[in-house]
Amino acid sequence: LEKEALQKVDDATSLKELQDVRVAYLGKKGPITEVLRGMGKLSKEERPVIGELANKVRGNIADAIDSKKASIEAAELEKQLEEETIDVTLPGRPVPTGGPHLLTSIVEEIEDLFIGMGFEVREGPEVETDYYNFEALNLPKGHPARDMQDSFYITEEILMRTHTSPVQARTMNAMEDKRPVKMICPGKVYRRDTDDATHSHQFTQIEGLYVDKNVRMSDLKGVLDRFAKQMFGQEREIRLRPSFFPFTEPSVEMDISCKVCNGEGCSVCKQTGWIEILGAGMVHPRVLEMAGYDPKVYSGFAFGMGPERIAMLKYGVDDIRHFYTNDIRFLKQYHQA
Ligand code: FA5
User: Fold this and answer.
1) Where do the annotations place Mg(2+) binding (predicted)?
2) Could you give the angle at the alpha carbon of 196 between the alpha carbons of 192 and 199, nearest 5°?
3) pLDDT digits (tens, 9 = 90+) for 204-245
4) Of 20, 67, 80, 310, which alpha carbon lies 20 to 30 A from 166's?
5) 180: cis peptide before it, omega within 30°?
């Protein structure tokens, strides 16, 4: 019996087989247990002899099983380690990565451009007071020009800002020593406009403000011309058309030429070959005064542009709503590799 059992232990190749051997020989219904159970029926002389023998056999089989178990476990561990070895030379699986939104990229590009001309970047609140959004910009209550920017009011005195121009007044007010200011301010603005291909009820603006002694209209023109050429190409031209904003005098709107020529001829955007991208002008003396700057000493220019419109022009995007509906197929086209 012992020989037979040890042979089976030796033959076992897995822990399962080994366990089967243990149950068969040492289990409750196994032959050794049976022998031990039948001891009562034996004579006094036989009992110690048989008992000792049975225990010895049981011990030998159990020892054999334990040592076999250890060797099977070691072999399995070895196998597992071998199987789980990582081949570090295999190419990795590509992980899809995101990228900046086109609008974020264009705003950063415009920021860089103006930082290069000595402007600093500022921010202001999107939830704004009536005072900063309108009154401090020479738009008292009841002024008809308020209709130019239909607003989302929260209370009578608080609204979602309709443009980034309140940051002009905030920046000048905050200057305790009333020193020169040269800043741009990008941010979200809100208007009760009906959404269409070129209008959104929430869009982005970038404000610019330069206040110093002897700032002139020609400075404004020079800065805007440089901006247009760096943004769209050296062949581009700008033109300033008379316009009206209560916070600038004189006021202009800036068009950029969009005549594109190649070997086969020229194509023109719109009928005129010019497209409007921003409003600007010389800061109104009243606005300077309200912010504590003496208009006899200081003068300044300001502008406000819509980066969505600029991105549309630069990248040929045909509908402003693409910026906000977040179709990944649209956004992906503008991710740099
Ligand atoms: C203004 O908001 C003035 N604050 C700009 C300004 C600043 C003038 C400083 C003078 C001095 P306007 O409403 O024209 O002006 O808007 C400026 C630009 O914002 C427009 O040229 C256009 O590019 C963009 N814009 C206006 N309305 C929308 C809209 N609904 N959707 C998308 N872009 C818009």
Assistant:
1) 249
2) 55
3) 999 999 999 999 999 999 999 999 999 998 888 899 999 999
4) 310
5) no
* Range list of H helices, the chain: 2-11, 15-26, 31-37, 46-83, 102-115, 130-133, 166-174, 217-232, 285-290, 307-315, 322-325, 328-332
Phi/psi of residue 238, nearest 5 degrees = -120, 155
Q: Sort residue 210 into left (φ over 0), alpha (ψ -120 to 50) or beta.
A: beta
Provide residues with CB under 6 Å of ligand 1.
Answer: 163, 165, 191, 193, 199-200, 203, 205, 245, 248, 276-281, 302-306, 308-309, 320
Separation of CA 235 and ligand 1 centre (Å): 25
Which residues are paired to 128 by β-bridges? 159
Query: How long is the chain?
Result: 337
- Alpha carbons 180 and 30: distance in angstroms, whole number: 101
Burial level of 128, CB count in 10 A (0-12/13-18/19+)? buried
CB-based contact 189:161 (threshold 8 Å): yes
- In degrees, rounded to 5, the angle at the alpha carbon of residue 305 between the alpha carbons of residues 299 and 307 is 150
Whether the Cβ atoms of residue 133 and residue 159 lie closer than 8 Å to each other = yes
Distance from C-alpha of 292 to C-alpha of 295, rounded to nearest angstrom: 9
Residue found by looking up tokens 């005072």 in the block: 131
Tokens standing for residue 76 = 């399995």
The first and second tokens of residue 262, run together, are: 């190649």
pTM score, two decimals? 0.74
Q: Tens digits of per-residue pLDDT, 88-121?
A: 888 888 888 888 999 999 999 999 999 999 999 9
Token pair recorded at residue 157 = 């005195």
